[in-house]
Design a protein that fits this description.
five-stranded antiparallel beta sheet; 50% helix; alpha+beta; 540 residues
């Protein structure tokens, strides 16, 4: 009995792929593999070269960042040389970066005449004495001339200078290499490609003709072929979509990685620019204050701290800019360093100043700090500040002169003592008087002999209502300030200031502390240090 028409139609519509359909799908896959091999191989080689070039650029950027860090942290004093270049090696005396107890370091840069012409950096261990500094200063020069095994353990290879031109001008280098390669080989690549194209054309044509003939013989017409090979076309389309999706996902991941690296580098550079702009802004404010004249006090514009504010609140930004949606915040503060006790005042004509040492002793007592640390501190400062006569040699264990309050740990102070002294003392390049308009009651009481804490507090409360234009105004309120012995230790003007800037750009936070000196309307930067630092304690 013949099967019903509906059952036959159901079987025809649900039958699987025929052998011809599978052969066509395999042939299409093979053809795609052959055609895509050259493209995939080129993409793979391009990706490898791009990643290698990116790594080289990152290494170069790291080397240049270290170079900039060494120059920014450079320090000089009557004891040590800050920068020296003898034609072979650049030697730098810089601050340590590991912490307050980390002493100075000697960093050296040179180019070694080896196969790659490497750009090298060498660094000494932390140094706390003049004898150690002299030893490693000379060792840095010897390292550049004839490096030993111990010296090579302290060196770091930055980048081969021979390949620096290829890194900075890659297009020119690639074109030059291609020209040289074609000149050596006589351009066989183009000839082989043309020959292969001519050789493949007849075979390919015959293959398609035979395939068409075979299919025509089997099915008896083009319309019948198209109807029976719909499954092969669907399978080929699915394979094509899968291949394209895989390649697209790989390309997107590589692009995402490059974007993240570029965004991090851009955030770092932008933060540096913003902090530089904030420092210039602070210098302009101090210059305008000097032009106005008068005493320096805490009611002036420079003394008002800038709370964290979005940059778009006072900067014009195009709404179409790529950075319009970025969260960038700036905060900062200018602090009068002459509102603190200057430890440089302890040395006068190469000897210990009795009034300044007594003032520091009163501050130690007032803050409850151990008196056993006071005498070593003053003696070490005297030794570090000693001016040598011509031909005189320094003692072997002469300490290096600290440049910041944190570096007082070199002289034997405990971390707790350094943290307690930090809001009240400073280290300036020269002797300075104390500004009674900006100093705290503790510092004023410690500086003026015989002054009670109640009088110092009354002086601070009175200046909040109206600042002191002259010392005579303050002496009328507290007669002890008019004594001849303390007249030279007090003032109502300042020349040294600390500028703190803080930038928060998305999740990145960068802080910078700078010391500036103002002479008239000329404001110059003495030092800059970037990195995390404790928040300043307001004077008074």
């Amino acid at each position: 009995m013949p099967a019903p028409r509906t059952t036959t139609a159901f079987r025809r519509s649900h039958r699987g792929f025929t052998l011809v359909e599978l052969l066509v799908a395999i042939a299409v896959m093979a053809l795609m593999a052959i055609l895509s091999w050259r493209g995939l191989d080129g993409m793979s080689r391009a990706q490898t070269q791009t990643l290698a070039r990116s790594d080289e650029v990152l290494v170069l950027q790291a080397g240049l960042a270290q170079w900039k860090s060494d120059l920014d942290a450079m320090t000089a004093s009557p004891q040590v040389i800050g920068l020296d270049w003898d034609g072979r090696v650049l030697r730098i005396t810089r601050r340590g970066s590991a912490g307050p107890s980390d002493g100075m370091r000697v960093a050296a840069w040179t180019r070694r005449n080896d196969a790659g012409g490497n750009w090298l950096r060498w660094q000494s261990p932390p140094l706390n004495s003049l004898d150690d500094w002299q030893t490693y200063w000379a060792q840095a020069q010897n390292w550049a001339q004839n490096a030993g095994d111990e010296d090579k353990k302290r060196e770091v290879s930055i980048v081969p200078l021979q390949g620096l031109a290829n890194l900075l001008f890659p297009r020119w280098s690639l074109e030059q290499s291609a020209v040289q390669r074609r000149a050596r080989q006589g351009n066989p690549v183009g000839a082989s490609r043309r020959g292969s194209r001519r050789a493949d054309t007849p075979a390919g044509a015959g293959h398609h003709r035979s395939l068409d003939a075979g299919l025509g013989t089997s099915h008896g017409g083009r319309r019948q072929i198209m109807r029976n090979h719909r499954g092969a076309a669907l399978l080929a389309a699915m394979l094509t979509v899968t291949l394209v999706a895989t390649l697209a996902a790989t390309a997107l991941w590589q692009q995402w990685r490059s974007v993240e690296v570029e965004a991090a580098e851009r955030a770092r550079v932008q933060s540096t620019w913003l902090l530089t702009g904030a420092l210039d802004w602070a210098r302009l404010i101090l210059r305008q204050d000097a032009s106005a004249g008068g005493a320096d006090h805490l009611a002036e514009p420079w003394a008002v701290p800038l709370q964290e504010a979005r940059l778009s609140t006072f900067l014009s930004m195009d709404s179409s800019s790529a950075d319009a949606d970025r969260d960038a915040f700036l905060s900062g503060q200018i602090t009068d360093l002459q509102g603190r006790m200057n430890l440089t005042n302890l040395i006068e004509d190469g000897k210990l100043s009795v009034p300044a040492s007594q003032a520091l002793a009163r501050l130690f007592d007032q803050l409850g700090l151990p008196a056993s640390e006071l005498n070593p501190l003053t003696q070490q400062l005297v030794a570090a500040r000693k001016v040598l006569k011509p031909g005189e040699q320094a003692a072997p264990q002469t300490p290096l002169l600290p440049q910041t309050v944190e570096q007082l740990a070199w002289l034997g102070l405990s971390p707790q003592t350094v943290a307690a002294l930090r809001p009240y003392v400073t280290l300036l390049p020269e002797r300075t008087p104390l500004n009674i308009n900006t100093a705290s009651a503790e510092v004023i009481q410690a500086t003026v002999p015989g002054l009670e804490m109640a009088d110092a507090t009354r002086l601070v409360n009175a200046r909040e209502r109206a600042h002191f234009s002259t010392l005579a105004d303050a002496a009328r309120l507290v007669p002890a300030l008019g004594d001849a012995g303390v007249a030279g230790q007090l003032a109502v003007n300042s020349r040294f200031f600390e500028v703190r800037g803080r930038v928060r750009l998305d999740q990145a936070v960068v802080e910078e502390v700078s010391v500036v000196q103002r002479d008239g309307i000329n404001v110059r930067t003495l030092s800059r240090e970037r990195g995390p630092s404790p928040a300043p304690t307001p004077a008074g």
